[in-house]
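Lecture notes, continued. The same structure-token format from the folding unit now serves as the input rather than the output. Read the line below as a description of shape only.
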């Protein structure tokens, strides 16, 4: 496996792990899901300086592999949990 592919898999694994943590596990999961159902908003944190994983595109919008992965996970959550329309906020940049 090439270095780039290894980094992408490692980053994807971290992204999925963080998404699972954000959704909650165990007793706190019900509270997290209730809040998600109530707010209809999923907040995604990202880095602005880590291309190709996450960066700001020419329009200043979050872009990259991890941003796309988080949006895909959000889409799956919406479908699996029957959340209806879910707003995705990608404005929480990490430094």
């Amino acid at each position: 496996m090439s270095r780039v592919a290894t980094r992408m898999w490692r980053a994807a694994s971290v992204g999925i792990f963080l998404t699972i943590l954000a959704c909650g596990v165990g007793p706190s999961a019900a509270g997290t899901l209730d809040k998600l159902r109530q707010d209809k908003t999923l907040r995604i944190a990202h880095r602005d300086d880590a291309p190709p994983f996450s960066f700001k595109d020419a329009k200043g919008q979050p872009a990259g592999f991890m941003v796309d992965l988080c949006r895909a996970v959000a889409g799956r959550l919406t479908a699996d949990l029957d959340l209806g329309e879910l707003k995705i906020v990608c404005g929480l940049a990490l430094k």
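Point for the exam: The first helix runs from residue 3 to 23.
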